[in-house]
Amino acid sequence: MTENDFIRLEKIDISIAAQNFANLLNENKTYFLNGTWGSGKSTFLKQVDNLKLKNKKKVKLVTIDFWRLNDSRSTLETVFAKLHPFVYWGLRLIVILCIALSILMTNVVDLGLSVFVPAWVILSAGVVALIVAIHQFLKIKSDGIYSRLLTFNFPSCRKKVLVVDNFDRMTEEQQEASYKLFSLLNGKLPIIFVGDIDIIHRNESNYLSKIIDRRIELPFVLHPTKIWGDYFEQLEKRFEIKLSDNFINLVMKENRNLRDREHFNDYVNLELIGRNKKEYVLVEQQMVVIYLYIFYPDIYNVLLKMGRITDSIKRKYDIAESFIILRAEPSIYPFPFSSNTEAYLISEIPSNRTLEELNAIIETPSLLLEELSGMLSSDFTTYITTSFYDNDFNYRFLLFKTSFKLSEEGNNNWLIDFIIMNMAKINIKYPNYELDQLFNQLIVDTKSTFISQVEGFWRANTELTDFSDILYYSFKHKVIDKEHIRDLVTDISPFNKMFSSFRRKEQIILFYIYINKMDEYFSKWDEDLLNVINNLNNQEFIDFLLGFGYIRSGDDNEGVLKINGKPYVIDFKFKKLAGDEYFDKISNVFDNRLDEIKDK
Predict the structure, then answer these.
(1) Cα of 276 vs its chain's centroid, Å
(2) What is the pLDDT of residue 552?
(3) Is residue 223 pLDDT above 80, yes or no?
(4) Which domains occur in the chain, in start order?
(5) d(CA 600, CA 598)
(6) Dihedral over Cα of 435, 438, 442, 444: its sign
(7) Do residues 388 and 349 touch, judged by C-beta distance below 8 A?
(8) Which pTM value belongs to this model?
(9) Which ranges carry the KAP NTPase domain (predicted)?
(10) What is the mean pLDDT of the segment spanning 332-348?
């Protein structure tokens, strides 16, 4: 990623406001350009400096920044040197030459120059050198010379405007000295104070009103509301997102200025574009972390150490909007801050995969098989579960087809269940039995229609034709449950002539039991049903008990029997029913058959 890909802040057009201000400078008045630090005052004045007045004279801004100067000279001397550099340095050069000449004419250093230099020149140079020496020895601090010189109306001053930058940051002594200076220059040239008028010395007594002729505010295009509003539009267009009102309000209410925006944009470029995080994180949440990193380092340090916002920080800072944004649900992709904190930290590189990489896995059959059948990765599962119902998600059938293939091979996990179950929910209208009762519709008819839709779904999307297979995968992947078929009217039962033609006979028996609520009322079990169950082959019998829940998969330490190397145990919930005469009868049949299988 190169700098050419970075977000460039759009140039703000302030030409009209700058021209209007430049026109004001035709008059030798004192102005105060008001604005907070970093709000664009220097940018504004720079454009004014490049404009011509109506009288076609070039405006020459002479800027002095006492706050940045590391100069032992007095305020008057510094200003005079800036306004009249040729006069100032000419005078200093004359003094230096006089000192040098007086030294050269002494008996100690006599180069024989006295023959060529008139006596009056030597005498004058000596006097000047003596005055300077006395001045330096006594350390006289007097600006009388420069205050006198500043009252002269030098021709060079007529094309200049004196600008005192960062006036609000000067010390009280410097500001007091500046007031005296401006009284000397008043009416001789335009003078511009630059700073935040609300925080300068002596502002509370309205002292400045006696010095300042006009107070100038920055144009609205430089106001935080305008500059950030335009910038947010630029961000939304670049990252193809919609920023939340919470984030926008957070920035707007704090009146972050032009320099703040430039600083923020620099980190947006570095993190989201330079480090290519935009594909790995939620863009807005990354912006919130950047915002906290720049403007609330204390909060960021808490995030760095603890990965969350503590209650003490919430009480200390009134920026609840950012906390709301960072508390996004973990079931979205890319992962939110709460689920993948490290990726959002400044200068860190995310380890999760991009949407492009995840889509490539789905589109490649071998990779998808490997992903679904192996150890499920958190980024893949989150992407599937959060995107499955999106209208523009085009991979549902690919995921369903691969999941069903793995299920047929006996490979199963919760993501396979999720894919198959939710694929069915998209294609099948699930009944609302409470609503049906409200409108006096026959629930039996509703259930019959629903089961027909389930059967149609499997036949349309797989090669299943046997109804018992359809039941098996429907129950296995929670496409249907017991309540969907309670009191269903059907001719399918283990006592029907068609029973022998079904491939998974145990599923037909379970179907019959659930329809007639026999899983709740064991008194309904008769000898005929127990005989049908007992006549199942060993694998069918085990599958029946697993489907019914009488046994479950166990481990080697607790297994009561093994089939094909797999241990099984009787489920605890059925052990609790021991003592019920009806259940005991059923349990004896099951246990006797299990003993037979165990012996074999």
Answers:
(1) 13
(2) 86
(3) yes
(4) 15-219 (3.40.50), 223-344 (no CATH), 521-600 (no CATH)
(5) 5
(6) positive
(7) no
(8) 0.67
(9) 18-219
(10) 86
